[in-house]
Write a structure and sequence with these properties.
mainly alpha, three-stranded mixed beta sheet, about 45% helix, single chain, about 180 residues, Neuroligin-3-like, 6 helices, AB_hydrolase_fold, Neuroligin/BSAL
């Protein structure tokens, strides 16, 4: 398994707990678009930290906090309950940390994260709107993309409900 492979169980969990709710949330915040311009930005932190060891492959929940705060090793272990090896934190991780900290602090100060991104990369991150559905895929080289996990979001929102209607579960069935 290379570091870009993620298990189907992790994908399922990420969809149900993070991806689908995040997309639904930003859609709700931008429902008045274009009448009211969007000030909502969607970010997908796609990075595979070298300090994560064991079975965790990819950006685990709350691991982005290591890029946002100056936390020591003991604090990190309290914040991120995953096996880590702080000795694997290298220059790439430090550079990414400063990009992330700068971008988030710029967003907090101004409401627009682009000053934090444009000075450190070549992307222009537009606010989310229901038509373009833009988001920032944040990694060593940030990239603006559209329709976060679109196929999987459509699976959960359209295909699975359709299947449930087509193939209802018979509660009286002895096979259950």
């Amino acid at each position: 398994m290379n570091h870009f492979d993620v298990s189907p169980v992790n994908d399922l969990t990420a969809d149900l707990l993070f991806n689908l709710p995040a997309v639904q949330y930003v859609e709700g915040l931008t429902q008045d678009f274009p009448r009211r311009p969007s000030k909502t930005y969607l970010l997908y932190f796609k990075h595979f930290p070298k300090f994560m060891v064991g079975d965790i492959q990819g950006m685990a929940h709350a691991a982005d906090l290591l890029y946002l705060f100056d936390a020591g090793d003991l604090d990190v272990r309290k914040l991120v309950p995953f096996p880590i090896d702080p000795n694997n934190w290298g220059p790439e991780e430090t550079a990414l940390k400063y990009k992330y900290m700068h971008m988030i602090s710029e967003f907090v100060k101004t409401g627009n994260p682009n000053k934090g991104v444009s000075g450190l990369s070549t992307c222009d991150w537009p606010p989310f709107d229901p038509q373009r559905r833009s988001y920032l895929q944040f990694a060593e080289y940030p990239e603006v993309k559209n329709d976060l996990k679109g196929d999987r979001v459509r699976l959960w929102r359209q295909q699975i409900p359709m299947w449930i209607k087509q193939y209802p579960i018979d509660e009286a069935s002895p096979n259950m």
